[in-house]
């Protein structure tokens, strides 16, 4: 039986590199400095314009302290941005970063309330489980 292998797409890996950088609130220049390349050379990787090597994936993963496999995921990462620097806000990339979503201040407050509720619920659950020990 033949196995099918998926080919890594520069755009998908680049998008994951971009999202990991944004999640960690890092500038492209910081990653580029770590890699020893120019910022413009690095952003070409993020846009999928340059061939991304295993070495680049490994070193970017080291910089972000993530598993390199997370950068290779074809399913991508969903990232919610305030909209200020979102690639979709300018439309210049033709929807390339289609997993980036913007949130309003009201949605941000609602998300924070939800997170606080889940955290509180988890703390209560841990307390109940500790009593059962």
TrEMBL record:
Mind telling me which CDD domains this protein's record contains?
HTH_XRE (cd00093)
Q: Which GO molecular function terms does the record list?
A: DNA binding
Specify the domain of life of the species encoding this protein.
Bacteria
Signal peptide region = none
The HTH cro/C1-type domain is annotated at 21-71
The record, for PROSITE patterns, names: HTH_CROC1
Q: What InterPro entries does the entry give?
A: Cro/C1-type_HTH (IPR001387), Lambda_DNA-bd_dom_sf (IPR010982)
SMART domains on file: HTH_XRE (SM00530)
> What sections of the sequence does the record tag as coiled-coil?
none
Protein name per the record: Helix-turn-helix protein
What species is this protein from?
A: Pseudobacter ginsenosidimutans
Upper lineage is: Bacteria, Pseudomonadati, Bacteroidota, Chitinophagia, Chitinophagales
